[in-house]
């Protein structure tokens, strides 16, 4: 996977060539990714689905994150990103079903890598039951949903923890219920500005 080729860009989003995933993370080169946030509306309440990253992931294992996300390879466009939804979640989605939220500069500095992404970001509105998810176990170990209003309150500081419900698949392949409270420490530590941007963009679509 680290040898996969991706397009790289300068700070003005101009393409400047191709590099491996290992190189872009080691050198902090800008590259493209695909992010999709899935929301449902049930009895006039908006819910946001989140994935639980597998415990075997190199970075941020066992933390809650974007519903579905992944790198775009050198030969791929944003349209090809829907493969991530199918691979990770087992959900069939057509590109026309997605609501584009724009390209977001996404930056995370880990101890051993610098991740500078041009994230092609989308919203997918769909009422899904948990039984409809078939997880790519080496990537995703669970799915939860939270009230979008609660998710917003968590990141703007109005709440210290929020309620989530869903399921996870343990290492023995057993499906376990998630029914508990969670605080910020149980989410991937994206920059606060990233969460604020996402909340604003999703809110605009939900309020239309």
Q: How do the helices and strands line up, and which of them pair or pack?
A:
Layout: E1 5-9, E2 15-20, H1 21-27, E3 30-42, E4 45-53, E5 64-65, E6 68-71, H2 82-89, E7 99-109, E8 114-125, E9 140-147, H3 148-156, E10 161-169, E11 175-183, H4 192-206
Parallel strand pairs: 3-8
Antiparallel strand pairs: 1-2, 1-3, 3-4, 3-6, 4-5, 4-9, 7-8, 9-10, 10-11
- The dominant shape is globular
Q: Using only CA atoms, what is the Rg?
A: 17 Å
Biggest beta sheet summary: 11 strands, mixed
**What is the string of SSEs from the N terminus onward?**
EEHEEEEHEEEHEEH
Total of domains = 1
Secondary-structure class:
alpha+beta
Helix proportion range: 10-25%
Q: Which homologous superfamily in CATH is the superfamily?
A: Nucleoside Triphosphate Pyrophosphohydrolase
Question: What is the CATH level 1 assignment?
Answer: Alpha Beta
Q: Would you tell me which CATH topology applies?
A: Nucleoside Triphosphate Pyrophosphohydrolase
Quaternary arrangement of the chains shown?
A: single chain
Structure explained in plain terms:
- This protein has four helices and eleven strands; from the N terminus they run E-E-H-E-E-E-E-H-E-E-E-H-E-E-H.
- It has one domain: Nucleoside Triphosphate Pyrophosphohydrolase (Alpha-Beta Complex), CATH 3.90.79.10.
- It is α+β, with helices and mostly antiparallel strands and 208 residues long.
- Helix 3 runs antiparallel to helix 4.
- Strands 1, 2, 3, 4, 5, 6, 7, 8, 9, 10 and 11 form an eleven-stranded mixed beta sheet that branches.
- The longest helix is centred in the C-terminal third of the chain and has 15 residues.
- The model has no long low-confidence stretch (mean pLDDT 94).
- Helix content is 19%, strand content 42%.
